[in-house]
Amino acid sequence: MDLKDGASIVADLTTIGRKSGLPRTVELRFIYHQGNFYASSSRVKGKHWCENLLNNPAVVISVEGKKIACVARRVTDEKLRKEILAARSSSR
Prior knowledge:
2 helices
C-alpha cells in the first residue's frame, strides 16, 4: 500500500461492541498522516464506533484488501487535531 501523507481513503473500521463484545464494522473516511490513519467525528457520544473504540482501543482497519490491526487513541494534541482536520477539509 502506497499512501501519501494527507491522502483521504474510505476503509472499514472494525471495533468490538462495548455491550455485545462482538465485532462491529463501519465504513469511514480516514486521513493518512505521518504513517497513521485518522478518523474524525463531530461528536463521540451516541456514535457507536467512537464509544466502542474508547472502550476497547484494539481495532482493525481494512483498506485496499489488507487488514491492519491498530490501537486507537483519542487525539488530544490540539496542533495535531488541527493538522488532521485541515487535511480532511482539503481532500474533499
